[in-house]
């Protein structure tokens, strides 16, 4: 079956040069965006209950823009002045660049991973003497905790925000040729909103092994998977699939 419509379970890109817009134009398909999950702030009083003392950490591990926003929010709510000496270990260039919203980039010690947590661990291993804070949501990947424990670094998890299922009730009678997922939470949201969901002819695109596993455990058929050596991005995987199916 040809692909005419795609729903990406993420917010719409904020930049005009998104590869999704290029994909839509080149392949003549309609691409909509909708967050299947969203984050809600954990108040400072609940953070204190986790026995988090921001002053005892010499380094911070930032895996997302949400982690950046909520770390500085909590620091402000706790009236904690973030020291210039704090070292930032960012999972990707996008996260590191986002730091400029809060700090003078050139005056800070910032270490940047290539894209994934295992890649960032290569840098963290070289700085075992630091005391690390890992601000995250309530849905921290176990693999991240395992990696830090295996290396033997001194670290503490801090839940600064929660991942919450979004209300998708307005999509009940709206159908797409492809649904795109990037996390197990997105799969959970689909069935939380639509417990009787049947995939039928809808193609499911998934990014990452944990998302594949969650989809398969939910009884979904994964038709498009990324990243792969040949297709490192979701848009590349979608384009390949569309080209192959729409020429039939």
Please tell me about this protein's structure:
With about 250 residues, the chain is an alpha/beta fold. The protein folds into 2 domains: about 40-165, Rossmann fold; about 170-248, Rossmann fold, CATH 3.40.50.10090. Helix content is about 35%, strand content about 25%. It has 9 helices and 11 strands. It has a 6-stranded mixed beta sheet. A 5-stranded parallel beta sheet has the order 2-1-9-10-11, with helices on both faces. β4, α3 and β5 form a beta-alpha-beta unit. α1 packs parallel to α9 (about 235-245) and α7 packs parallel to α8 (about 210-215). The protein is elongated and about 60 Å long.
Summarize the SSE layout with pairings:
Blueprint: E1 5-8, H1 19-27, E2 30-33, E3 37-41, H2 44-49, E4 59-62, H3 65-77, E5 87-90, H4 93-98, E6 109-112, H5 117-124, E7 131-137, H6 142-151, E8 154-165, E9 178-181, H7 184-193, E10 203-207, H8 209-217, E11 222-226, H9 234-246
Parallel strand pairs: 1-2, 1-9, 4-5, 4-7, 5-6, 7-8, 9-10, 10-11
Antiparallel strand pairs: 3-8
Short account of what is shown:
Helix content is 34%, strand content 23%. With 248 residues, the protein is α/β, with parallel strands linked by helices. It has 2 domains: 40-163, Rossmann fold (3-Layer(aba) Sandwich), CATH 3.40.50.10090; 168-248, 3-Layer(aba) Sandwich (Rossmann fold).
């Amino acid at each position: 079956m040809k692909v005419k419509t795609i729903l990406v379970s993420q917010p719409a890109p904020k930049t005009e040069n998104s590869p999704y817009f290029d994909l839509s134009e080149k392949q003549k398909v309609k691409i909509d965006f909708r967050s299947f999950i969203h984050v809600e702030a954990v108040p400072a009083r609940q953070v204190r209950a986790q026995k988090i003392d921001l002053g005892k950490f010499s380094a911070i591990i930032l895996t997302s823009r949400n982690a950046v926003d909520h770390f500085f929010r909590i620091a402000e709510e706790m009236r904690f002045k973030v020291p210039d000496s704090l070292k930032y270990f960012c999972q990707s260039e996008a996260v590191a660049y986002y730091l400029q919203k809060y700090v003078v980039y050139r005056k800070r010690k910032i270490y940047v991973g290539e894209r994934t947590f295992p890649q960032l661990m290569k840098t963290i291993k070289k700085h075992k003497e630091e005391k690390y804070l890992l601000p995250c949501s309530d849905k921290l990947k176990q693999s991240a905790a395992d990696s830090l424990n295996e290396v033997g670094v001194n670290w503490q998890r801090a839940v600064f925000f929660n991942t919450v299922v979004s209300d998708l009730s307005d999509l009940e009678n709206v159908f797409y040729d492809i649904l795109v997922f990037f996390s197990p939470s997105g799969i959970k949201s689909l069935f939380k909103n639509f417990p009787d969901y049947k995939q039928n002819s809808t193609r499911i695109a998934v990014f990452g092994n944990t998302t594949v596993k969650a989809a398969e455990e939910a009884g979904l058929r994964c038709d498009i998977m990324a990243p792969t050596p040949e297709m490192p991005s979701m848009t590349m995987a979608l384009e390949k699939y569309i080209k192959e199916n729409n020429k039939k």
